[in-house]
Amino acid sequence: MDNKAIANTFLELGQLMELHGESPFKTKAYQNAYLSLKKLGTPLNELSDSELKTIPGIGSAIQEKIKELLDKGSFSAIEKYREMTPPGVREILQVKGLGPKKVQAIWKELQIESIGELLYACQENRLTLLDGFGAKTQAAVEQNLQFFLDSQGWFRYKDIYLKANELLSKLQKSFPGELFTFTGALIRQEQVLSDIELLCSVDEIVLTAHPETGLVISAEGKPEYEGIPVIIYYSDGIRWGNLSLQLSSSDDILSRLGLDLTADSSDELAIFSAAGLPFIHPAKRNSVLLEYRDIMLNESLIENKDIKGVLHAHSNYSDGLNTLEEMAASCIQSGYEYLGITDHSKSAFYAHGLEIERVLQQWREIDQLNERWNGSFKIFKGIESDILYDGRLDYEDDILEGFDFVIASIHSILNMDEAKATQRLITAIENPYTRILGHPTGRLLLSRKGYPIDHIKIIDAAAANDVVIEINANPHRLDLDWTWIPYATKKGLKLSINPDAHSIGGISDIEWGVAAAQKGGLEPNQCLCCLSLLEIENYFKAKRH
In the chain, fewer beta carbons within 10 Å around the N or the C end? Predict the structure, then answer.
């Protein structure tokens, strides 16, 4: 089991115990373990007992459960509570906005034990019979249930990508000399996918008959790999380029670009050349960029190596797992030139947001560390300031002006209509201390839809106020959505690919932000974190005067 699966097991245990009325002290311990483990960068199976003890919230009892999970994939306590809880009730617990106490009332008082029953109860107006469930709450539950159902069978890009590469490695090892390549939505780097698509020079029957590939036939009679459907296309190589190009492009790309697939070709590049076009990266073969033809045909595309620094990261001053020094050391080891530390601001009490005294303490530590590095690396004094309900930031101006830069983000009161959400963001954008707008819709892919905003008004306001918009690279967010990148760059707006890292392991999430940025045709000169240390120092200084 990986760290994510182990963390989720402790979250599930805490929720199930709360559902069954166990002591809040016990349930809180497992929830705290989840919060610590989900941020951990180093795989748990690589940590010694003494290293495990240093993780906040991981006592001896939880350490033993971690060992059981690593050895056996489960432990007795979680199995006990799973057996006590109907499977449908456990599924209801996964729906956003329904905590254990609400689920307990739904289960015990309305005798509802499945998602379908609960959705029907909402449509029959029965949730309003429960204490604490008014008409608005019922409507929100119904919306979240529908979103949950619509998300089933879909996977985030990162999860599919990592599993697909595992599969590819096994296929290449099992069939040396044969051709295998990703295609379809995977090669186009779509943010959510339903399957892995492969173009192969080996027939599907041969592949699935080979046990070492890990491919199996599902109950529906289709190939899958570790629970993920796999679609296999076969080519003998003569028309490899034709089929590869056809499968990796959205439907209207080929005809509107005038690409001819009638002649046999083993190479995509030859097909583009024959049409007098430069090679178009698979990520850019989408209908959105057809409306921005110059962006689609531009070969200057951002890559991981172009990123020079990290501009959204949290330390253990707020809700991060690692110290300032550890976060900086990880950035240095990864070849970055700077780190913009942006812990949560004082309104984010749930994330140990920084009161003014703690801000000043952090500034002193940053000064000491920067003095040690003597210009070879630098930590910038940033903050992720909460945008309050009226659009104000949650520090006074005399504190805000002391930061090198401010990321303004919404974290609370997410239930807004488009007009309210848009105005709230625009007010924050117009604050003279805002430098970057963080994760503008607040979405969580396949988990939370995000509040509706008028993207055009937000982008126009950011351009008018010289505010950068973040592409949050956390694979659960990827927000700003890539479909708005072309419009933003046409308006002359800079974007910034930020990992929103809460541990040293989270820094590498930049990779997923780059993949999203490539779909929108982002170039290095349009990205803030592609500036060198000297360039971004000058950028921040200019903005402060």
Answer: C
Per-residue DSSP letters for 63-107?
A: HHHHHHHHHHS--HHHHHHHHHS-HHHHHHTTSTT--HHHHHHHH
Q: Examine the fold and report which residue of 151, 184, 209 is the final residue of a domain before the chain moves on.
A: 151
Split the chain (545 residues) into runs of 10 and give each run's mean pLDDT: 90 94 89 86 85 85 91 93 95 91 94 90 86 89 90 94 97 96 97 97 93 92 95 93 93 87 91 94 95 95 98 94 95 98 94 95 98 96 98 96 97 94 98 98 91 98 98 96 98 97 94 98 98 97 75
Rounded to two decimals, the pTM is 0.86
Residue 450 lies in a domain: no
Q: Do 71 and 44 form a contact (C-beta atoms < 8 A)?
A: no
Task: State which residues form the domain around 493.
Answer: 304-438+457-471+484-543
Dist CA 150 CA 84 (whole Å): 28
Angle between helices 324-333 and 356-373 (to 10 degrees): 40
Residue 21 lies in a domain: yes
The closest of 294, 297, 326, 269 to 54, measured between CA atoms, is 326
Residue at 447 is within a domain: no
What CATH number corresponds to the domain at position 341? Answer: 3.20.20.140
- Tokens representing residue 286 in the block: 């989408």
**What's the number of domains the chain is made of?**
3
Q: Which backbone phi and psi does 181 adopt, to 5 degrees? A: -150, 150
CATH, residue 229:
3.30.460.10
For residue 198, the tally of other CB atoms under 10 A from its CB is 28
Q: pLDDT value at position 132? A: 86
In a domain? residue 133 = yes
Task: Walk across the sheet containing 468-472 and list its strands.
Answer: 309-313, 338-341, 378-386, 405-409, 436-437, 468-472, 495-498
pLDDT value for 544: 65
Residues 522 and 378 in one domain: yes
**H-helix segments, 262-409:** 268-274, 287-290, 293-297, 324-333, 356-373, 397-400
CA gap 338, 383 in Å, rounded: 15
Residues 110 and 169 in one domain: no
In whole angstroms, give the CA distance from residue 500 to residue 513: 11
Give the amino acid at 378: K
Which of 257, 291, 325 marks a domain boundary? 291
Please tell me whether residues 350 and 367 are part of one structural domain: yes
Strands 223-225 and 215-217 turn out to be antiparallel
Q: Which pLDDT value is given to residue 212? A: 93
CA distance 298 to 290: 12
